[in-house]
Amino acid sequence: MEAKREIIFDKLVYSCVFEKHRGNEEFIPEHFLGYQLSGETHAFHADGNTIIPENSIVLVRKNQLIRTIKYPSKSGKYQFLSIALDKETLRQYALENKIVVDKKYMGKPKLFFEPDDFLYNYFISLAPYINREKEATPSLSNLKIREAIELLLQCNPDFKQILFDFSEPYKMDLEEFMNQNYMFNVSVASFAKLTGRSLSGFKRDFTKTFETTPKQWLLAKRLDEAYYLIKYKKQKPTDFYLDLGFENLSHFYYTYKQKFGITTTET
């Protein structure tokens, strides 16, 4: 059965699957609060892998790339509910409550935890919207986002250093960033934003750093890694081609032969 991903109202997303499902790469533009109702999520990101177990809550930080694999529970169902904490609502909340952030968050990079009674019941209160028993007006959906902010700050006051940090992404080291994230199959525009650059600035800096275009470098980098996995790790292309950012096997086999002059079986 195909994955069900449904936008319940403006910022609330419900995901449900009944068999193991590999998600696409996603660029996370806004912080979001998620609850793993059943099953578990395996998330792959630049800092490594994170497993989100059943009945846990996760605060996912904005401006990052994530790839997920969804595993149903023993009962055969996977359910994940998330609500986006958009910048406009966070700015207004900070203004109304006179919140000023003067330092970066220095806590755990993996922000998932067991829900307290307040957070647990918060997500339970969203069930009527999932079941379509109740429709959310724009003002009501705004209130639910604000409620999530209140509960997060009540759970951990230091989260304000994450939620209300409105500084623009600074220019990251391009070489280091690309070597950590080349396997994500996202647009060049997403890479530009994540490194704190305009699209034109990203392309200019990229050419200066790597002496080639982003598209050519990404393909070469992924193929070099594929060669290593086949030659030295004895892995099959079917096991890793998606993990390296290739959309389909036929394209991978064609470009591999074109670059190395041999097929994968001849490597």
From TrEMBL:
InterPro entries for this protein: AraC_XylS_family_regulators, ExsA-like_N, HTH_AraC
Domain of life: Bacteria
The keyword Ligase belongs to this UniProt entry's keyword annotation: no
Pfam family, one: HTH_18
Keyword NAD among UniProt keywords: no
GO MF term (any one): DNA-binding transcription factor activity
Domain HTH araC/xylS-type: residue ranges: 172-267
Keywords: DNA-binding, Transcription, Transcription regulation
Listed name of the protein: AraC family transcriptional regulator
